[in-house]
Amino acid sequence: MEKLKVYVGCGLTHAPQEYRLMIASFKERLAKESWLQVLEFVTPNSVLPKPDAHHIYLNDIHECVGTADAMIGDLTYPSTGLGWELGTAIEKRGIRTLLSFQKGALVSHLPIGAVQANEHVTLHSWESSLEELYDDFLNELRSVHRVQQ
Hints:
Number of domains: 1
Distance between the termini: 8 Å
Number of helices: 5
């Protein structure tokens, strides 16, 4: 059985450590699903040298969003990069895109409008953790996986 490739995108530049850890935990949990392959964005850390912008672009847009079967994009923290990724996923590739945000976050009208204009895009909100949406996201991803087989 071929695995469904899923990319999880979010804004990390201005996000607190607690949010970063929540995203990492969510991705780790998804990766444990035998039928999913979670594609990894470039994350600078203290051990490796900072990746250059060209490498980040090629990895995140071409290798991840460009090959993904579905994308989960959390809108809780604003990010130009996330906007670019979502534009690629929704408009250029037309792949299943699951959007989420923490209730109370300031979310641009553009992704909300994308949900209204595209049947392959959904929007979900969460209270205290993205984990609240895990089962809903798995159900949506299963429907994409069934179509591919």
